Amino acid sequence: MLIREQLGGVMRDIRTSKTMTLGDVQRGARISVAHLSELERGRTEPSSEIIRTLADFYNVSQADIYLEVGARMSASDQLNGRFEFQDLTSLLYGTPIDIGFDQDVSLDSMPDFNNVMPSAPDHLPDELVADVDVKSDART
Q1: For every residue of 73-115, which 3-state class applies, written as one string?
Q2: What distance in Å separates the CA atoms of residue 53 and residue 58, rounded to the nearest whole number?
Q3: Which of 15, 71, 120, 132 is deepest in the core (most CB within 10 A)?
Q4: Is the pLDDT of residue 26 over 60?
Q5: Contact, 54 vs 8, CB < 8 A?
Q6: Mean pLDDT of 118-136
Q7: Phi/psi at 117 (5° precision)
Q8: Does the CA dihedral 22-23-24-28 come out positive or negative?
Q9: Which domains does the chain have, with CATH numbers?
Q10: Is the separation of the CB atoms in 39 and 10 below 8 Å?
Q11: How confident is the model at residue 130 (pLDDT cuts 50, 70, 90)?
């Protein structure tokens, strides 16, 4: 199972749940119908910019899109009898943290998120760009 296949299925399911056609998405997100069709059928690997554009257009979180892709990939692994994987949380962060309501959590016990990119938007919709007064970055 390839990520692009699951990602395409998620994107198709989002579009159809909103009762939109490929043409509706083309007009709203300005992505060609041919490219959208290839993406939804899992035949092309979408760029992160396309995923961001579609997430914004559909008004859904990129994180939720990836979570759904992950859930579908996990279900596919289980259906195909693939269970012998190393726990990624343990690999990345050591022993998983069991956070219950009765458990105190210190900052020392949390994973290091210094390597995470900032969450500020990396683009603005075209209709907002005209309203933005761009000032030079005057760093001293």
Answers
A1: HHHHHHHCCCCCCCCHHHHHHCCCCCCCCCCCCCHHHCCCCCC
A2: 9
A3: 15
A4: yes
A5: no
A6: 51
A7: -70, 150
A8: positive
A9: 3-80 (1.10.260.40)
A10: no
A11: low
Q: How far apart are CA 130 and CA 87, in angstroms?
A: 47
Residue 5 has pLDDT above 60, yes or no: yes
pLDDT digits (tens, 9 = 90+) for 88-106: 777 777 765 555 555 554 5
> What average pLDDT is seen over the chain?
78
CA distance 28 to 25: 5
Q: Residues near 90 by Cβ (< 8 Å), separated by ≥ 6? A: 96
Of residues 107, 110, 108, 78, the one with CA closest to residue 93: 110
Which two structure tokens, joined as six digits, stand for 127? 């209709």
Neighbours of 1 (CB within 10 A): 14
Residue 17 DSSP one-character state: H
DSSP state of 41: T
